[in-house]
């Protein structure tokens, strides 16, 4: 996969303010830690604010960075931003803002926000909050797989073209890779049915069903099964595709078969939420391992197949994709800013620049 941008776009960033600050809520978590490191490396002039419920953890994480502070942010407070000494120029939400209090606080104050953990069932809630608060600042919902890396890649291919007949996103998830708690949402409720779109029409399918054999890199072949993720709806609603299917396989055949059996026979549904979360948390490692997904885009004329791989794992891939939206918020490197209110990464008209930025950070996009 090629882009029109060959030079290092990160070397040309110019912020409109000399003291730009960015608040990362959940900044000491798995993804938040990698994200804060990437921002510190690529944008050393930015002041990073690490926010989280535990002040000592936020401060400890901040001490590892050259220009950062730690603050207490509890998303369950009536106004999570009320205790801030000063307001940030942008905010990244890497925790599940369950009651929209963080979103509401940001919209009220006109703070641009990027949410990478909002699931498909809660997209309408975001629209409602922005409408109620008469918000005019950007609210970017980059909560597709790996902070919408797949939707960005699809958008860059389909730019200026008719909607794809169908887009398949087939994911190989490594159990050797560390994973944040919010990543488990895909699997904790894997037994629940959800909607997919085909020929612009929705239909309901069982969770973790409909196996499909997929060949990944290094001659790995796995059975991928359906999961719910926001891009199954947003790629259709934003006019990029008539249908979207998202499937996933764990990179352990035993785990893949066992998990599918637990879901299929109903045992998974009968386990408590706490028990399901505990099982999933214990299944993942604390090191890093490559993450991969394959994007297949069927148009009237051909099928485009792109393999997206990050050798540094899912936290790095998520952080790299999030960083592209931060560049967009600040209109860096010639980026077009997001529209006021709720938007999605795939709506941008210059997603090739997102691909270029992720490539420079080590993410690999390969036509197959």
UniProtKB/TrEMBL annotation:
SUPFAM superfamilies named among the record's database cross-references: NAD(P)-binding Rossmann-fold domains
Cross-referenced Gene3D superfamilies: NAD(P)-binding Rossmann-like Domain (3.40.50.720)
Protein name: Saccharopine dehydrogenase
The species this protein was found in: Paenibacillus borealis
